């Protein structure tokens, strides 16, 4: 088993002039964006504990060990968090310590499929995958909700959280406290979870047996609600979100017929108005006008260009929409600094950046992207993203 020696300082000099200049520009750009008086398209560098693919490359990490060895998971998250504050690839102030080092029991994205009993596939070079259960309609109707705390893979997650929490007890890293450990238990959309259980047949069911689909989707939504209440903020979970991996396969008619009523129903049960934010890394732009009308869609994250014509989304929905886009992984991962420059110029000239309310992200910092490509991407946005 791999163990990691934890660093005792940043590997960059936080007082170096290039760091001070970078930090000043990053702050200006972010503040201007937030104030809706943009000076340049920001490149957002989120700081989630599961963003460690670049670091896995640096240490040649075997993800089968990362996902099963809690001490290794803890060390990777701390070291990757430090490295994220050293890389000049986004508008994020560098060389600054957080108040505390947040951690997660990182079994993204299989917490819900694992709960339902889907087979999990651990792989050396990427996140955990899973297979659909592909149950028959009768089995779907008969299926009962696994225990929302200990059902299926959640038992493993619970035990690992206890172990990680014990490891961080009293621990500091670079002089700051380590923890708490977030459970990371979440779900990625109503249709997504329903497909995990019923499989692709669910799409034919929409034509052949709509009553079954209505009942089954409501049942799945009720389960997602219970899961979220069990692992989240139980008293007030807020709105029932409508971000959903898989919905791009639906026509506007099917989306309105099957999904919209259940989102409304769940929000009614929670006594919450719709939450106007959407995460959408797919190509389901044909559904956005419905979301705007039904849920007050106001901001969209993870929109991927050129899979999606972001300029058209802006034209369809209006200038007031906040868009957080990204450039397709294949372009940044497999391109050269020159092709990345060309792609970013094309995106910026397409109308996507509008007169503001547009930012780009660097995604989950997955494995296999050369650091010089990430640097070229940031440099290109600095050059072509000015207002
Ligand atoms: Zn996504």
Describe this structure in words.
- It is a single chain.
- This protein is α/β, with parallel strands linked by helices.
- Helices cover 46% and strands 10% of the residues.
- The protein contains 16 helices and 10 strands.
- A 5-stranded parallel sheet has the order 1-10-9-8-7.
- Strand 5 (172-173) and strand 6 (176-182) form a beta hairpin.
- Helix 15 (337-349) runs parallel beside helix 16 (371-384).
- The longest helix is centred in the middle third of the chain and has 22 residues, at 210-231.
- The mean pLDDT is 96.
- The structure holds zinc ion (ZN).
- Zinc ion binds at residues 245, 279, 281, 302.
Q: Structural class, please?
A: alpha/beta
What spatial order of strands do you see in the largest sheet? 1-10-9-8-7
> What's the rounded overall pLDDT mean?
96
Q: Largest beta sheet, briefly?
A: 5 strands, parallel
Q: Compounds present?
A: zinc ion
Report helical residue fraction. 40-55%
Please state the CA-atom Rg, rounded to the nearest Å: 22 Å
The number of helical runs is 16
Secondary-structure map:
Elements: H1 17-34, E1 43-44, H2 53-59, H3 63-66, H4 70-84, E2 101-104, H5 111-116, E3 120-121, E4 129-130, H6 137-142, H7 154-168, E5 172-173, E6 176-182, H8 190-198, H9 201-208, H10 210-231, H11 252-270, E7 277-279, H12 288-295, E8 299-305, H13 310-317, E9 322-327, H14 329-334, H15 337-349, E10 358-361, H16 371-384
Parallel strand pairs: 1-10, 2-6, 7-8, 8-9, 9-10
Antiparallel strand pairs: 3-4, 5-6
Helix pairs in contact: 8-10, 9-10, 10-11, 15-16
